[in-house]
Amino acid sequence: MELRHLRYFVTLAEELHFGRAAERLHIAQPPLSQQIRQLEKELGFELFHRTKRSVNLTEAGVVFLDEVQQILRQLQQAIQVGQQTSRGELGELAIGFVSSAAYNILPTILRTFRNCVPGVSLELHELTTDQQLEWLRTGRIDVGFVRPPVEENTFSWEIIFQESLIVALPEAHLLANQSYVCLRSLANEPFILFPRILAPGLYDLIISLCQQAGFSPSVSQQAIQMQTIISLVAAEIGVAIVPASLQNLQRTGVVYKNIEPVSPKVAIAMIWRSSETSPTIQRFLEIVKHIT
């Protein structure tokens, strides 16, 4: 039994007329009659009562029609799901991101992807750069948003966002009313910084900027998340050099100032496994590259 036999049967059951059914199927009437007889022979029961004037379904034909229509609907659904999956429009996607990405490019990316591909379920994980690399290795996330550089050749990565560094000060700080802050003026300030292992590229840039200004920062407190660093600044534990998008984190007790001299740009990079073949992940990468 072939699928075309079932389609011939359904069309004839809908038309109850061999001529009209053959016309719909774009075949001649004799081959249609032959195919229906062949199907009945294979099934072992009659599907139609035939007279010179009419064609009607048998009782078995009525039941068989209902079942076949369900099969064809399921088949069509299976084809549709297969097509959507092959285009990356269905499935799940696990995404890691450094906390600061939530204040710049990530919301736009997620909103655009959901609008373009609503059938994909997103699973989001706020992770440090080093955690994301580990999770990518073990397959716990599919794509990450990290602070570059990344030294492993098992990953592919692309810079999607760049921004300046700024200084976060307690609002009662003596420099809080300045339009900008000269880094040299922070030489004796206690600094709040994250451990280097979490984002070596950003950490090294901050240290390098301070050294170029003539001092090594005195780190009084370390914190893993940028939000925590800003909260500690608000508590007057110290000052911090942070990406400019952290200004979008409105926190009472903190003011943000531009740095003089102007700092180099820091980046957010999208990262994924170089061997990745998933259509869903490829679709995500395409959308991100298109909007950034």
From TrEMBL:
PROSITE patterns: HTH_LYSR. GO terms for cellular component: protein-DNA complex. One of its GO terms (molecular function) is DNA-binding transcription factor activity. Keywords: DNA-binding, Transcription, Transcription regulation. Pfam families: HTH_1 (PF00126), LysR_substrate (PF03466). Residues 1-58 form the HTH lysR-type domain. PANTHER family: HCA OPERON TRANSCRIPTIONAL ACTIVATOR HCAR, TRANSCRIPTIONAL DUAL REGULATOR HCAR-RELATED. Belongs to the LysR transcriptional regulatory family. This is Transcriptional regulator, LysR family. The lineage of its organism: Bacteria, Bacillati, Cyanobacteriota, Cyanophyceae, Nostocales.
